[in-house]
Amino acid sequence: MYYTSVNSQKPLPYFKSDDFGNGKGSLANFDFYCEPEYGENYAFELGFRINMTNSPSSGTSIFTRPKYNSTYTMFRVDMDGNLRMYTYEPNVDWGAWEVTYRLHDKDSNGKSECKLPRRCGSLGVCEDSQCVACPSPRGLIGWSKGCAPPKLPVCRGGSNVDYYKVEGVEHFTSDYNEGVEPIKISECKNRCNKDCKCVGFFYKQESSKCLVVPELGALVKVDNSSHVGYIKISK
């Protein structure tokens, strides 16, 4: 799954399934299915059947098992970037549509909601699927919907910008794009200076990995304080 940023020609990845595919072949069929478990009507399986060409990795993935007839189910990617399944139960008077599955869900074994690009709007530190802080040049302050990246001046190769540091965070794309290595932090900063689309960079000190980003969004809180983010700001 990808997030489209106005500052980037390429979409930014924020979820990839490794259930099927071994890096070879291509997707032939991707079918959404609903059927009763063991031929009975006590529970219904909702999932996907995936067929790969030139790959032994085809198979079935079960996502959820509602305890009622789930024939009327749809799945969609909602405005927040989360994939959800909605099931319709015609035998109730109200609330007939129910969310039966969420890909990013803090209350299940799904992915953390902090991995959603806009979980905290245009900027925010996210921990346990909650927006816990707003990074600022003065440090971390309470998060609100008004938290936003600094307004940047006209791009001049870094001569009129600076950066402020946020410790113990990673970018929402870090699971799928760790950046380049090994380079010094000064070179990482210089890359962001030269890139007019860059709004900040992320650096892992133990591996010297540098990730220059065109979008901030959710900054995922991690235990390792040597994973740091630098947000570009006007001098």
UniProtKB/TrEMBL annotation:
Residues annotated as domain Apple? 155-235
Q: Name one Pfam family in it.
A: PAN_2
**Which UniProt key words apply to this protein?**
Signal
Q: Which InterPro entries match?
A: G-type_lectin_kinases/EP1-like (IPR051343), Pan_app (IPR003609)
Designated name of the protein: Apple domain-containing protein
The scientific name of the source species is: Solanum stoloniferum
